[in-house]
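Need residues for this backbone.
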């Protein structure tokens, strides 16, 4: 008999709000993940992290690397991430950065050179790995909808939304003409990172709508306001249209043959509801009699976003062991670049055209 696999050991640089997602995952699944330590800015913050999460903290990357993590999650502001990633590479440790590590195309060039020289650098882009989106993208890629020509994404901001749009259309590094605008409207404030609202209050929602035209046969539409992340009254939306069918949020319709339309609904299968005593976790999602997503982390009590981030950790571990990349620095840079062009078009009111970038040929 063979014993259970050892947990994936990783470190974290940064102790902010996003860092805590990784901490929660490791706490919920100690048999799968182990945090070797966290780098914090100060000893005071370090003591807070140690008390809250029961993990050692350090002030320097060098001290963290001495704990021998398999890789290190870089969860710091994106303008600080490149220096940390470069230092980790110098120390021979793979880096998984929480966000694309640059504010513009030029500042990421040193990191692309490191990748070309063999450094292992990935970005923890989780949205395409979240249960519902992963199921929807799988259905779109299955062929039953035919070639995909039109996608509308209304559920995550900037490069996250562009990433979903690009993957659903089957786009890699093709260029696009982008036209964007901003619409501002009043919205009753919902919860935020600190918790539920404490009073009736209205905020101004800034909604960016953009068209990404990848030639004459593929169109992506981005439509999102940041308030959607926490709002109780603004739903996420996804529309994927192909020649023979479409996905509209949870509803799937397609032609089995030219005279036989098929209809189905993607349904969540969850434990812990009503009289079920299995625990509280997601089993997966089904479409008809087919599992279109199965949760590899049950019975962990994780949100959908945490399930996706846990999958990033597993795929990063596999990549370090020689497996394929799951969201490369090149992909992240392309999505970030298109997002920046979208912001430029929204600001100026003029269409912009993307151009080939060096990472597309790396």
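Answer:
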């Amino acid at each position: 008999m063979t014993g259970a696999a050892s947990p994936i050991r990783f470190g974290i640089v940064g102790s902010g709000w996003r860092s805590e997602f990784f901490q929660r995952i490791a706490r919920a699944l100690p048999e799968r993940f182990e945090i070797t330590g966290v780098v914090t800015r100060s000893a005071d913050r370090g003591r807070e992290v140690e008390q809250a999460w029961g993990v050692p903290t350090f002030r320097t990357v060098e001290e963290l690397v001495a704990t021998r993590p398999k890789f290190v999650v870089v969860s710091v502001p994106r303008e600080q991430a490149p220096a940390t990633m470069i230092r980790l590479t110098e120390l021979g440790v793979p880096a998984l950065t929480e966000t694309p590590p640059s504010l513009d195309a030029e500042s990421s060039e040193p990191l692309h050179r490191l990748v070309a020289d063999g450094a292992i650098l990935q970005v923890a882009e989780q949205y395409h790995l979240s249960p519902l989106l992963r199921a929807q993208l799988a259905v779109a890629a299955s062929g039953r909808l035919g070639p995909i020509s039109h996608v509308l994404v209304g559920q995550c901001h900037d490069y996250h939304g562009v990433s979903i749009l690009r993957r659903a259309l089957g786009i890699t590094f093709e260029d696009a003409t982008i036209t964007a605008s901003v619409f501002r409207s009043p919205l009753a404030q919902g919860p935020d990172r600190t918790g539920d609202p404490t009073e009736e209050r209205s905020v101004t929602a800034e909604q960016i709508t953009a068209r990404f035209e990848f030639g004459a046969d593929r169109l992506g539409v981005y439509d999102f306001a940041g308030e959607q992340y926490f709002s109780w009254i603004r739903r996420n939306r996804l529309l994927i249209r192909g020649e023979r069918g479409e996905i509209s949020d949870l509803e799937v319709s397609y032609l089995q043959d030219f005279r036989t339309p098929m209809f189905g609904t993607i349904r969540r299968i969850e434990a812990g509801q009503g009289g079920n005593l299995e625990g509280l976790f997601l089993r997966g999602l089904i479409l008809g009699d087919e599992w279109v997503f199965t949760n590899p982390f049950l019975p962990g009590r994780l949100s959908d976003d945490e399930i996706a981030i846990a999958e990033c950790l597993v795929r990063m571990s596999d990549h370090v062991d020689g497996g394929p990349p799951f969201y490369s620095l090149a992909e992240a840079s392309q999505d970030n670049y298109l997002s920046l062009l979208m912001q430029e078009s929204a600001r100026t009111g003029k269409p912009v055209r993307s151009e080939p970038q060096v990472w597309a040929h790396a």
